[in-house]
Specification:
Elements: E1 4-5, E2 20-21, H1 23-26, H2 28-34, H3 41-52, H4 64-73, H5 77-91, H6 96-113, H7 116-132, H8 136-153, H9 156-172, H10 176-192, H11 196-212, H12 216-232, H13 236-252, H14 256-269, H15 275-295, H16 300-316, H17 325-331, H18 338-351, H19 357-373, H20 377-393, H21 397-414, H22 417-433, H23 437-453, H24 457-473, H25 477-494, H26 497-513, H27 517-530, H28 536-556, H29 561-582, H30 585-602, H31 605-734, H32 740-772, E3 780-783, H33 784-794, H34 796-802, E4 805-809, E5 815-818, H35 820-836, E6 843-850, E7 854-861, H36 868-873, H37 894-905, E8 909-915, E9 919-927
Parallel strand pairs: 4-6
Antiparallel strand pairs: 1-2, 3-5, 6-7, 7-9, 8-9
Amino acid sequence: MKNNTGIIIGNTHKNFFFKSFKKKEFHKLSYSMRNICKINRWLFTMILLAFASVNGQDKNPQSVTVLKLKLQKATVDTIKINTLNELASTYKYSEAKEGLQYGNKALALAEKKQWNKGMAEANENLGICNQTLSNYTEALFYLEKALYLNKQTQNQAKISGTLKNIAFVYLSQKKYQQAITYLEKALKINYSINNKIVIVYNLNDIADTYYNLNDYKKALSYYEESLKINETIKDPNGYAYCLSRIGEVFSKQKNYKKAIENFSLALEKFDKKQTDNINNTLNQLSNVYLLMSKSDPKNKQKYITLSDKTLKKISTKQEHYSQSVDALKASLNGVMADTTKINILNRIISSYFYTNPKEGIPYGEAALKLATKIKWNKGMAVANDNLGVCQWVLTDYDKAINYFYKSLYVYQELKNQNGISGAFNNLGLIYVEIKKYDLAVTYFNKAYKINKKTNNKILMVYNLNNIALNYYVQKNYTKALEYYNKSKDLNLSMHDMNGLGYSYSKMGKIYSDQKDYTKSIDYSTKALDSYDKNQSYNIGNAYIEIGTTYYKMALENPNNKQQLLAESSEYLNNAIQLFSKTEIPDRLNICYLELYRTTKAQGNFALALNYFEKHNTLQDSLFSNENKNKLANLQSKREIDLRDKQIEIQKLKINSDSKKVYFLITLTLSIAIFLILFLYLYISKRATNKLLLDKNEEISNINKQKDRFFSIIAHDLRGPFSGFLGLTELLAESIDDMEKEEIQFAASNMRSSSYSLSRLLDNLLEWSRMEQGLIPFSPEKYNLLKIIKECVITQQDAINKKKIQIETIIDESLEVFADHHIIQSVIRNILSNAVKFTPKGGNIKIKAKNDSRNIIISVKDSGIGMDAKMLNNIFLLDVKNNRKGTDEEPSSGLGLILCKEFIEKHKGKIWIESEVDKGSTFYFCFPHAIA
């Protein structure tokens, strides 16, 4: 039989062990790594119990007999104290009175030695024993002493555990407020040390207590906080438990709709092995339906039916995620979404992994085909994973590697770090099996780097163990110990005692292989001390390791041979007791073989023969089953290879027939492409010609506009320049003959001409810059009234000269979001225009209002007004619109055109209302915010 080494990681617990085992067991890892984020609530319960063991919880998996023997042999006081505390801890729930005896002995000896750690643990055990016996006053006395001692050592984890135990004493007495006080203190400590697993339990305990107090609002807040943390630590069962409890809170609040939502979601999240939690949730859901039948008489029968159906699920245990393979197959005949069908197909293939992978492969291929068709990457990744596992079990490693690479590629596209890590790990394990160790360690390291980056310590531990495994099978014990030590340290940081036990166990195995038997027994014993009592398999393996190590020591120590052989026999018999209960034949087989050797060395040949016969019987059974499995796998592989060859032959036939079809299709497509290309070129040419005609027309319009522009410039510059030139000639030739008043009049006219010329040139420059896109646009918030006042000042001379009344009706707090320069230019031009065409003694009103979308500004004058024709043409450059003001002031018409373009730049608009001899009102608006 070919042996393979690896690490099994179960879906419901971490089953760390290192041994030779069957192909079936080795391949579990691939599937489990893909689902590693689905660590259920049971795992976290075990981790919590292991962690809490130092705070008085039951941690010792060894038999009472072994502990008592250890106590008899102990010569060092600290070892005696620890052993007494372990015995007290073993009895504290089942036989609390006997636990008190051992706890009192431990306390007396620890006080004599003044050893705080031993005193603290003894008080903790005595407190819990008294709680079990309902001696609550004594329980609180000892636990408060334990709390004081733990504070002396400043061990925050132990302090937290003791606070929680005190809270449980108060809970036993239904003193909920006192319990909450201590639970809150424990919670605060666990937040400070970031122990998320214990935080979840603290939150749930506090929430449960508030629930018992009928304070559903507070209960809900703590459950929701626990829900968030469960999500971060990727505990679907813890997450589901919180949802179920939240459902109960909503049920109490008579919010039945939300209660049903939470119960339904909890049932989806629970692992199928969480039978008690599932049944409890189904029971609660059934009760909600009954309550709804009472509150809604019209639908009474509907809700009663739903309640009955829900209860039936409890008795049959047929939740949607735990259906039999036959039920899953039958469900494929119904109408469903493609993604649902893919999920069902993937569940079917996973059911066949280790029973009949050949039968599972068609379902995986169907899942992959459909997922590829609808381009659903997640379904493709899972299908490739499943097919890889099946091929791995069938020992077709090339195909397995191919599928895992495809899975890796899809996970990389999805940026699913856990998926990528799992794919790397699977590849590494295959390479270990085919003895490509360098490749294996490369992939394990890649997986480790990803998990370190995402701070997924649980997966980091698995990666370190796999790297150590890779070195172990190469007999590189130094490197293997290095990585198991790293794994050990990481487990300690997580307070994961079962993981720690696994690390110690592997190190013990290595030291045994190196013939360092003392260290081997030391580390194997540490493993026993670490494992939770439910870890039967791992505890049994540790017993076997210690037993075989004592046997090896006996062979090399003739003087102490019989005592060492007795030790070996005791540990091996402990292993037999465990494996007989759990019915694990391959482990029992090893025990019988090792006991055969031990009893034979002791000279007890009759007993040795008995063990050998038991070993022989089991070996034949295992060998027979293994051969059957191998034969079935070989047959499956042969049939798959035959099917692949038949498919290849069929493909060749199809290819031959297809060549003719391809030729005709190619010819048809070529003709079609030629026609399409010809049509495309023809249409493109027509479009190009049209574009050229449009551009020519555009250029023609631009030229006309340019001619009109130069005409305006020539006309409007001629007047101011002629006046300015005449006045300067007059001054140059006759200034000596002119009176002072005449000189002042000429200077005033020159100033007026210069001002008109300056305003015209400013507008021309502004218009030119606008056309070239050179005016920067930087809108900000400004006070509108302030801008208008600035503009009025620029026109003050003309206003005073004509004695025009300016009335401003604007809210002083009104702000505009605009470009200061541009909006000032607009208001200045419009105001200048109003002053120009308003006679002496007239009036101008400036208003502004703020509606829901825009700022609307109006400038109304009592001037000469405009007719309809002028109104229609006033914003057109190619139509002459310039006319003189009421005091013969020149006008180019460019100012208003510039205003229009500026306003449109603000995403606004400008319009005019005017009648001849009745004045004009210029309106313009722009939005509050400019996109």
